[in-house]
Amino acid sequence: MTRKEIEVDDKLLLTIREVAQLLGVSQRAIWGWAHDGKFPAPLELGRLRRWRRQDIETWLAEQSDTANGGTK
């Protein structure tokens, strides 16, 4: 694994960089979606912001359901 690659499979909390890489979008897109209420808000741990992996997976499943007309 190169230094730029991030292993996120087993992590419970993800950084903005890891979330963006996982979804294949920019960090700016994640922040925009979160600000607009279209994406799970991060946990605030002092000055750190982290996302629960489970929240991201749930959000992805909901997006898939919506794209399929509410059916699985």
Can you describe this structure?
- The protein is an alpha+beta fold.
- The protein has one domain (13-67): Arc Repressor Mutant, subunit A (Orthogonal Bundle), CATH 1.10.10.10.
- Helix content is 44%, strand content 14%.
- It contains three helices and three strands, in the order βααββα.
- The chain has helices at 16-23, 27-35, 53-67; strands spanning 13-14, 43-45, 48-52.
- It has a three-stranded antiparallel sheet with strand order 1-3-2.
- A hairpin with a 2-residue loop joins strand 2 and strand 3 (48-52).
- Helix 1 packs across helix 2 (27-35).
- The longest helix is centred in the C-terminal third of the chain and has 15 residues, at 53-67.
- The model has no long low-confidence stretch (mean pLDDT 87).
